[in-house]
Each structure stands twice: as C-alpha cells, then as structure tokens.
Amino acid sequence: MKPNDVFRLVLLAAIWGGSYVFLRIVVPAFGAIGTMWLRIFIGGVALLAYALATRAELGYRQWWKQYLVVGALNSVVPFALIGYAMKTLPAGYGAILNALSPFFGAIFAALLLKEKLIGLRIVGMALGFAGVGMIMNLGPVEVTTQVLIAASMSILATVSYGFISVYAKKYLKGAPNMGVASGALLLPALLIAPLAVPLTHWVLPATPVLLSMLALGVFCSGVAYVLYYGLVADVGPTRAISVTFLIPLFGVLWGAMFLGEHFTLGAALGGVVVLLGMALVLGLIGPTAEK
After folding, report:
1. Cα separation of 36 and 164, whole Å?
2. In the chain, what are the domain boundaries?
3. Burial of 117 by CB count in 10 Å (0-12 exposed, 13-18 middle, 19+ buried)?
4. d(CA 176, CA 56)
5. pTM of the prediction?
6. Tens digit of each residue's pLDDT (9 = 90 or more) over 100-154
C-alpha cells in the first residue's frame, strides 16, 4: 500500500472509532432509530451538496438499486443495531466487536464468490469468537441479559457489514465513488423517512449532543464513506476492510479520553485475540499473507 493509502486507512479508523463515543452521547437523546436516520440523512445531504458543487459523477440513474441495497445493509440495518447496542455497551466494546466484520465477510465470500476457507482462516474465526467471549466475561462491565443482547445486536451488525463488502465487490464494479458514498446514505434515508421520523425522539438537545450528531452524520458517515469506498476502489475490499483492525484501538482510546472508560487486562487480551483471529481470516499473517 502507498503512504497515502495507509494515511487514509488510519484516518478512517480514527473517524469510525470516534463514532462509538458520539453514539454513546447521541442515542439517549434521539433514540436508536432516530440517531440512525439523522446520521444517514445528514451524511447524505452533506455529500450530495459537495458532489453538486464539484460536479462529481453520481450515477444515480444507473446504480440506484445497488445504492439502495448498500445503504440498507451498510447503513440502515447496522447503524440501528449499533445504536441500540451503544445504549448499554462501552464505546470500546462496540469498536472491538466491530472487528468481527471480516469474519463474516470471509464466510460470505466463500458462499457467494467461491473463495476457499483455508485452515488458518477457520482457526482465525475460532479465535475471533473466543476473543469476544474473553471480552464479555473478563471486562469491566457486568455480563447481564441486557449486555448480552446489546453485544448480539453489535455482532449482528457485523454480519451485515460482512455481506455488503462481498456484495459491493460483486455488483458495484465501475460505480462512481461519490455516487456510492452519497447514494448509500441519502436514498435509504429518504425511503425510510416516513417510518423513521415518527420514531425519532424530537428534543432540543444540549450543544454537545447536537455537535456529536453533526459529527456522526458529516464525518463518521459522509466523509468516512468517501474514504472507505475510495480505498475499496484503490486497494481492494480485502485491504479496505482491514480498517476494522484499527478501529478498536481508536475506539478504546477515545472512550478512555472522553468518556472515562477503562478496560481490564483480561478484556484487553480478549481484544488482542479478536484482532489476531481476524488477521488470520484476512490472510494478513501466515503463509497466505501478501509479501
């Protein structure tokens, strides 16, 4: 990867890691559904305005169906699930669980793209789930039914992320980057507005909540989507999705800095096991790693 690609990857991880902190602030005010809808609507409007101002190619007429699928499974469903989960889970937990996305990406790639699941990838999958178990059992948060449900919602979101990474690889070849990024936010936001608007908690938020909501929409959705789909186009989906290995580092860091969260040694080791397992799944280490 070129230095510019590495920089974009680290920047994307920092932005998405920060989204878990913002969610902890915003969701209690607007609710999980409202936060999801406002996030994708604000991000979509911001990107569309930028695209129109710069006369960027969008390709809505040709690609709108694919944009809707990507938006539903890469924005609407996972954002709602993660929003619900972040009512309960610390920001660091959410970020680490997000690292399971490549696990499900590998499964869907094997099912839909006929990519082989070699032995090390299977080992990596087992390590990933073992690491999640360590985090939940050895972390600072008491394991209750509510915590387990929240963790399940967060993991289910990574199933959606894993599927859509394969879908994008198969069905979005040639689609303009700005079109994918803006369309995957704005089109589903408009489609679900009649359902989402009544379910949103319409309150006059405090300034930190309002700024966090704007940051979620403009940066953690709009800017992040441009960076992500640009990386998919430039370095491929496998390398692009490796951003999930860096997100936990920033999620835990931002959670500690801004929310006062802390991790036990056992939970930290569980995070390392998750990252090791997902590195094996992606083939970033071991005999199949690219030289």
Report:
1. 18
2. 3-282
3. middle
4. 9
5. 0.83
6. 887 788 888 888 888 777 777 778 878 877 887 787 676 677 888 999 999 999 9
